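Q: I have 400 residues here and want to know how they pack in 3D. Can you give me a structure?
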Amino acid sequence: MTTAEQRRAATSTLGTPLLVAAIVLVALNLRGPIVAVSPVVDAIRADLGVSAAVAGLLTSLPVLAFALASPPTSWMIGRIGPERAMLVGLGVLSVGTVLRSTDGVVGALAGTALIGAGITVGNIVVPVVVGRDFPHRSGTVFGVYTATMNIGSMLTLSLTVPIADGVGWRLALCTYLLLALAAAVVWTLATRRRDGAPRVRAEEEGEPARAPSSQPVGWLLLLAFGAQSFSYYGLTAWLPEVLRDLRGLDAATAGVASSLFQILAVVGALVTPLVARRASLRVAFIPVAAAFLALPGGLLLAPALWPLWCSLAGAAQGGGFTVIFSAVLAASRTSTENRRLAAFVQGGGYLLGALGPWLVGAVHEAGDPPSWDVALAVVLGALAVLATAGWSALTRLRAQ
């Protein structure tokens, strides 16, 4: 069988609605298990007897795991293929979900780290599969994938407290194990015929795979994604408190602002691919960068318009994720390059992202008296890096 015939045989069953359904179910698991902790964090602290700093690790550890687990995840995908790797990731996620709820502090933290490691597999496998199996619809599928991740976050934020009121926080957090099991079943059905097909190595696709660190566009995309992650996690952690201090909002109203920031990401994730398809990734990136800059800039200059700034930035963070990983696909000549570049960008990007909540909070507290002006200026600077690095990367891609 020739290489071309191998490739056709390997992809003949792919790109189907069932595979899209599998990607959607996987996406529901890639953020929800992390944010589910936030609504019940007070109950967790009381039950485990831990400080706020330790409880904060239940949401920050997974982001650090995204960074640290990306290189070994890329290696594993290369060894066993993305189909089996995803099942390993969902298995690790499931074990972590149970461990987080069935032991004390050590178990909760260990389970949280496993959840982060399991999600990392999905973070890298999905872009690889989308690029390989939906080459002509990758932007649209990326948009659906990104939107579904945010929908998963909203579902868990909405449902965790009502479930916990009935069965306690431990069983409430374990409830989301059902989503992981459903994703594993549908993923297996969608890819079962692929497992027996020969996998094409990068060398068989025509050219040896390039190292991501040797590509200037790889470093630019890492910077862009790192700046977006830093800003996203920094704002997610502190936005309610910023609005309480700047506008005197009560906790409930400040929570609405956080919801706008998350919910509007669905709009950005779905609209951005349409713009990119009709124009280009560069054109789609312009409103993304401008709208994201509007949140810290608007809060500094016109905080009374906070609903507008939160909505614009929410749409931008969903659109930015789609643009960056569409660019990763565009910069990759083979599936192997796509996998390695995705791991490279996510590994460095999430490492920078993990610094966001800590640095924004530290800068705020360093003021005498504490002030959000400098902290918001730090986020504004990070978003300027996103705009500059993202535009430069997309310009290089256009010139290739």
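Q: Anything worth noting?
A: The chain has two domains: 10-191, 210-400. Residues 1-14, 195-205 have pLDDT under 50 and may be disordered.
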